[in-house]
Amino acid sequence: MRKLLNILVILLLTYSVKAQDIHWSQYNDNPLFQNPGNAGNFNGDYRFVANYRDQWRSVTVPYTTLSLSADGKLEKHKNLGYGILFFHDVVGDGSLRTLEVQGNISYLLKLSKDSTHTLRAGINLGMNHRQLNFDKLYFNNQYDGVQYNPALSSNEVLSNDRKTNFSTGIGVVYQYYVNKRFNIIGGVGAYNLNKPNQGFYNDVILRDIRTNIFAKGIYKIGFDWDIVPSINLSFQGKYNEIIFGSSVKYTLIDRLGEYRALYAGGWFRNKDAGYISAGMDYQSWFVGLSYDINFSKLVPASRARGGFEIAVRYILHRFKPKKIVHRICPDYI
Q: Tens digits of per-residue pLDDT, 178-209?
């Protein structure tokens, strides 16, 4: 029992020392987290996105993450995009809780007269709050020789259980757009440029700069079939994450104002997991599901079970009435 309690504490402390950002399997369906240049980069007036991830339920207390975002374009200045992102993350036995709010602004530059080539530059400003619940942790001093006794004092001086700081980031997104069934988009972003301090005590634990590089596209392979490949690379300190794979899209209907499409795909995350995904477009709605299959060194504990994730997106189009021009008919008509 004592060894098990020690392992749980060490795992928790190790996680907080890493001071890493969260990650998503459906990274293309969380555009503001992917790059601030994605703010306002869509066909419509307002975009609302929700993401939820549940991970490591088969190993320990599950890691759960919820993200909500909204973005749009200024009505009188369509080149200027804006967006806000909120996420809530809870991990480990001590319920290490992270709350973060990010504001994003982007500006569109047309590199060609027909807007085939465009560039969006964006900036990101965020506020991050972390909090730890010491009452949920286990310590050796609470072991009475037979079993764990929560009534015993831990003899630990744990005075500071929360930390708030600010972060900054930038990004740029390039897009080559021929039509909705043939286009390519890619970008580079850098977050935590000011390296905020994540330490709860006197120790300074800097949050490393996270560099994110992505590329995705869509290419017609049949009358109703498209292939949607993508890759995402994330580097933070000595840690890195490389994800690549592809979805296949089948359009059920796209005419007379009706639109429905299905997606199915497979993905690979280096040294960690592979995962499958499925999704559906229904008019202005999109719903995507994915499940990670773990094959890292954690397999003996995880039994290949990783994380479940869901993404929901809705794009709002404002009603724009047609402008009617009245003409005075001549007398002879």
A: 999 999 999 999 999 999 988 877 778 888 99
Alpha-carbon distance of 80 to 69, in angstroms, equals 17
Q: Scanning the structure block, which residue is given the tokens 């965020």?
A: 126
Q: Could you give the 3-state DSSP secondary structure of residue 6?
A: helix
3-state secondary structure of 277: strand
CA 269/CA 234 separation, integer angstroms: 11
Q: What are the structure tokens assigned to 112, written together?
A: 């060609």
So what's the pLDDT on residue 230?
96
- In 3D space, the residue among 8, 14, 5 whose CA is nearest the CA of residue 140 turns out to be 5
3-state secondary structure of 230: strand
Domain boundaries 2-316, corresponding CATH code: 2.40.160.60
pLDDT at 283: 94
Total-model pTM? 0.82
Report which DSSP code applies to 181: T
145: left (phi over 0), alpha (psi -120 to 50) or beta: left
Q: How many beta carbons lie within 10 A of that of residue 216, not counting itself? A: 19
Q: 171's torsion region: left (phi>0), alpha (psi -120 to 50) or beta?
A: beta
Q: Which comes out higher in pLDDT, residue 106 or 273? A: 106
E strands, the chain, are 46-55, 63-73, 80-91, 96-110, 117-131, 162-179, 182-191, 210-220, 225-236, 239-255, 258-269, 273-282, 285-294, 305-316
For the chain, domain boundaries: 2-316
What do you get for the CA distance between the two ends of the chain, in Å?
A: 98
